[in-house]
Amino acid sequence: MRIAMVGAGYVGLVSGACLADFGHEVVCIDNDASKIEALRHGHVPIFEPGLQETVANNLRAGRLSFGVDLNAARGASVIFIAVGTPPRGEEGHADLTFVHAAAREIAAAIEGYVVVVMKSTVPVGTGDEVERIIAEAAPRARFSVVSNPEFLREGAAIDDFKQPDRVVIGVEDDEARQVMNDVYRPLDLNQGAIVFTSRRTSELIKYAANAYLAMKVAFINEISDLCEKVGGDVQDLARGIGLDNRIGQKFLNAGPGFGGSCFPKDTLALMKIAEDAKSPLRLVETLVESNESRKHAMARKIVKACGGSVKGKTIAVLGLTFKPNTDDMRSAPSLTIVPALQAAGAKVVAFDPEGAKSAKDLLPGVIFADGPYACLEGADALVIITEWDAFRALDLTRVKKALRQPIVVDLRNIYRRDEMLALGFHYESVGRGHSPKTAAARTPTAA
Ligand code: NAD
């Protein structure tokens, strides 16, 4: 089957490369000519584990190719749209400019029967709109528009695409349904579950899924604040509730608030969809607000750990990306926390294994170090914002020697509190309050 993928970013490139791996003939199209030129030479412009190899293998095998416009899609029976849908203005509606442009370009290139598949995350009714755009521009074209939202996670995108928990397909006619079955037939081998539904339901499933996961994160973050106040441990608590199958253990790690290319914009967009439909989603409104204030609260937590002021102090920050194993800086909590520290008078030195390149433009005034130890040399405090594996087993004696003051603020709870205290650190983490009884038991000399 010949497939075209319009948009070769995090989603389009991973999806295209994986579909080629399944044996389909795939052309990835992007209007960023320099990106396409790099990809044609096998250079993958983003960091995603396993993607470089998958692209290279399929290029070599002749199943994957690249193009700069829809001419490259000629002969494709399926055309995916995987372009960006960023927030529009301050309000948060999804900006569909790229989607509409892609639809017009597809209309100009359609030959024979084509299934146009929306992989981008789009508001309810966008499928209808794309159908209208294509039908108006190409009245003779025979085509179907399908919704097939993507659920992959950056950092684990290849595995997620190839072994998904489910594939959701919103389709309005049998012909397109059959074609989509053929696209995903290889997944039968992995026992992937395909959920067929209407196009509008499919569009809404993507937003509802992200809002639900974001709500879990916001919930555990609020509970972590309570733990700090009343002497509970949020990690034990998360295990204690997460082992209940009805709740599940994932997305219950307390931290500095969610970020990334999806949760922040998709929760906002869902709020707007609900507002426009006059069916407001109070829980989603609250979680958005809660997450926003969380990031500012983390900056205040760091200032407090530094004795109430960071003016003139040097703060070493490890990890800037919104999560490990990606170079994606979109809506990362560091983009709120670091400027807040700078505004309070701190000099910030940072290290991130893959994110530094994109972070440099987004975080003016930050000094970028070459490694974790170089980052914290002479700093007044160390702050861990992203839990890259490389930060999990630092030589703590070396860390203590390098720091001017042994202050560590661990916003991802990757170190053990008792160990850090025993080593003489002033250690702050998230949601790990201490009950007076446990503290007394651990310190025999305590009053
Ligand atoms: P991205 O910004 O990384 O990639 C989008 C690409 O589309 C860019 O390379 C851009 O140059 C290209 N593009 C824009 N208009 C084009 C056009 N007319 N023709 C050809 N190329 C065009 O975005 P992304 O992170 O891959 O996200 C794409 C969509 O998938 C969004 O709707 C997003 O919400 C959704 N999504 C993203 C993730 C994720 O983890 N990144 C996960 C699930 C869903």
Explain what this protein looks like in three dimensions:
With 447 residues, this protein is of the alpha/beta class. 43% of the residues lie in helices and 14% in strands. It contains 17 helices and 14 strands. It has helices spanning 10-21, 33-40, 51-60, 97-109, 126-137, 157-162, 174-184, 199-230, 234-242, 263-276, 282-305, 334-343, 356-362, 372-376, 396-402, 417-422, 436-442, and strands at 2-6, 25-29, 64-67, 78-81, 113-118, 142-147, 166-170, 193-197, 314-318, 347-351, 367-368, 381-384, 407-410, 426-428. It has a 6-stranded parallel β-sheet with strand order 3-2-1-4-5-6, sandwiched between helices. Strands 11-10-9-12-13-14 form a 6-stranded parallel β-sheet. It starts with a strand and ends in a 5-residue tail after the last helix. The model is unreliable at 440-447 (pLDDT under 50). The site of nicotinamide-adenine-dinucleotide (NAD) has 27 residues, from helix 1 and helix 4.
List the helices and strands and how they pair.
Blueprint: E1 2-6, H1 10-21, E2 25-29, H2 33-40, H3 51-60, E3 64-67, E4 78-81, H4 97-109, E5 113-118, H5 126-137, E6 142-147, H6 157-162, E7 166-170, H7 174-184, E8 193-197, H8 199-230, H9 234-242, H10 263-276, H11 282-305, E9 314-318, H12 334-343, E10 347-351, H13 356-362, E11 367-368, H14 372-376, E12 381-384, H15 396-402, E13 407-410, H16 417-422, E14 426-428, H17 436-442
Parallel strand pairs: 1-2, 1-4, 2-3, 4-5, 5-6, 7-8, 9-10, 9-12, 10-11, 12-13, 13-14
Helix pairs in contact: 1-3, 4-5, 8-10, 8-11, 11-12
